[in-house]
């Protein structure tokens, strides 16, 4: 039997929201997927987002986490690129 899939809700902000044209996506990933894989998938689908890969912060369920933190089923994920302005 293959690894089970998990479903996460991803809240999109700034450049990510502009690329997809929506504020939220529901995505499936294999069990054992790190949160940084969400960013990798977005960059695969929208290569212009690659400039944000190394500066994006990750949050799971309203807590900032490290990129290697594993996702769990029904997590709410946020990808937070730097905010421009000042």
The figure for the number of domains is 1
Second-tier CATH architecture: Roll
Shape call? globular
Top-tier CATH class:
Alpha Beta
SSE topology string: EHEHEEE
Amino-to-carboxy terminus distance: 52 Å
| Number of helices, counting only DSSP H or I runs of 4 residues or more | 2
Mean pLDDT: 93
What fraction of residues sit in β-strands?
Answer: 25-35%
Main beta-sheet annotation: 5 strands, mixed
> Unreliable segments (pLDDT under 50, ≥5 consecutive)?
none
**What is the fourth-level CATH superfamily?**
Beta-grasp domain
* Strand order in space, largest sheet: 2-1-5-3-4
CATH topology: Ubiquitin-like (UB roll)
Class from helix and strand fractions: alpha+beta
Helix content: 10-25%
Find the count of extended strands (DSSP E, 2+ residues). Answer: 5
Radius of gyration: 13 Å
Write the layout of secondary structure elements.
Layout: E1 5-12, H1 14-20, E2 24-30, H2 36-45, E3 57-60, E4 63-65, E5 76-80
Parallel strand pairs: 1-5
Antiparallel strand pairs: 1-2, 3-4, 3-5
